[in-house]
Amino acid sequence: REKNRQFPTFRGTGRIKANLWDIIAVIQDASKHTQWLHECSEAGMLKQVDEVTQIVYNRIDSPWPVKDRDVILRGKIDFIDPYKEVKIRFRAVKSSLKKSPSDVIRMPLLEGHWYLVSMGPGKTLVEYQVNADPGGELPPWLVEQASKELPLFTLRNLRKQCSKTKGQYDDFIAKSHARIEQELAKRG
Prior knowledge:
Blueprint: E1 10-16, H1 20-28, E2 40-50, E3 53-60, E4 68-81, E5 85-92, E6 104-106, E7 109-118, E8 124-133, H2 140-164, H3 170-187
């Protein structure tokens, strides 16, 4: 934790038995974030900006009496090497695409990334990092609990989701690969 900072940066790493692109597909499918993103109770894509950028909504459950938090995120895929190394960066943005419910606090800051590195067929190293200010007052025990649980449970759940959805994103992956090949051909 940084000095004079109430909230720690959350980071977790793990290996997932799935191909890089299967994991990208799961992460990009915001409609299913509630199935695997830790404590996410509502989610969805608000706008597909371009082929690598989307704006999504996530609402995070909090234990009573703490109010739930929500956030609108702009996520962008950076292809370091499209078949071996990818970073998906996300950050909170101000947007009128979805109003925050009256009983929820909109997070003033959230930024982070998914860093994916292929370790061969069917194996990917995944790093998940989040730096956030959830806004409002939070008890120290809840901050401490979240800093341990968020990366651990999110990576565990991502692992299960990738196994559960194997083959469901084949069309998305094929179209993505075709677009990448076109881009690489243009570059020479």
